[in-house]
Amino acid sequence: MVGERSPPGENCPPRKSDLVREPCGAGNMNDTWITDALERYEAPLLRYATRLSGCHQHAADAVQDAFVALCRQSPEVSGERLAPWLYRAVRHRLIDQYRKERPMTTIAEHPSPPTDPAAPLVASEDHARLHTALATLSPRQQEVLHLKFQDGMRYQDIADALDLSPGTVAKTIHEAIARLRNHASLRMEA
After folding, report:
1. From the DSSP assignment, how many helices (H) and strands (E) are in the chain?
2. Residue ranges per domain, the chain?
3. CA-to-CA distance for 37 and 120, rounded, in angstroms?
4. Could you give the CA distance from residue 141 to residue 158 in angstroms, rounded to a whole number?
5. What count of other Cβ atoms lies within 10 Å of the Cβ of residue 4?
6. Which pTM does this prediction carry?
7. Cα–Cα distance measured from residue 101 to residue 118, given in angstroms and rounded to the nearest whole number
């Protein structure tokens, strides 16, 4: 959760202040839709941002910034279009953060995305094969598959979050799955 602190990472700067649980001001009745959004989307957004950035602290800051930006929006943003809006806001915050820090570090200096905390317990051969197969996909294919199958987003919502057309999302998912199947069949033959 955004309000929790993670252990300091080697490549992560100190965190900004923790996300305030009353996002837009204490006791304002108009803030219930934002509080509801925070409760519903905070954890999935944090997982998404951590996977993209490789740093829990950067992820938490991006999620916090997205919810602060949501406070400035009208309640019309809520509803069906809220999830894509939040995912897009988090993604853009991470891109801005990367661009700001780019002169100081390069991507090669960042470790690969952190392993799942349960990875030591799930160190099975199938798990390793899946990660090997996923690593063969492009970053866009990985991101689209993650949003579809881990976060359960619809094609239209993924398209809105990533500024793509729904057709491009469908094609990307189809090609990624075909590539994973091909990778699996090649491994079976070897």
Report:
1. 7, 0
2. 1-114, 118-190
3. 33
4. 12
5. 10
6. 0.56
7. 30
User: What is the C-alpha to C-alpha distance for residues 148 and 83, in angstroms, rounded to an integer?
Assistant: 13
**DSSP code of 80?**
T
**Closest alpha carbon to 157 in 94, 95, 87:** 87
The two structure tokens encoding residue 24: 């837009």
Q: What does the block give as tokens for 104?
A: 């100081």
Q: Is 59:50 a contact under the CB 8 Å cutoff?
A: yes
What CATH number matches the domain at 118-190, 2.160.10.10, 3.10.25.10, 2.30.110.20, 1.10.10.10? 1.10.10.10
Give the pLDDT of the chain (190 residues) as one tens digit per residue. 444 434 444 455 444 444 444 445 544 446 788 888 899 999 999 999 999 888 999 999 999 999 998 888 777 766 668 889 999 999 999 988 888 876 654 445 555 655 655 445 445 666 677 778 888 899 999 999 989 988 889 999 999 999 999 999 999 999 999 998 888 776 666 5
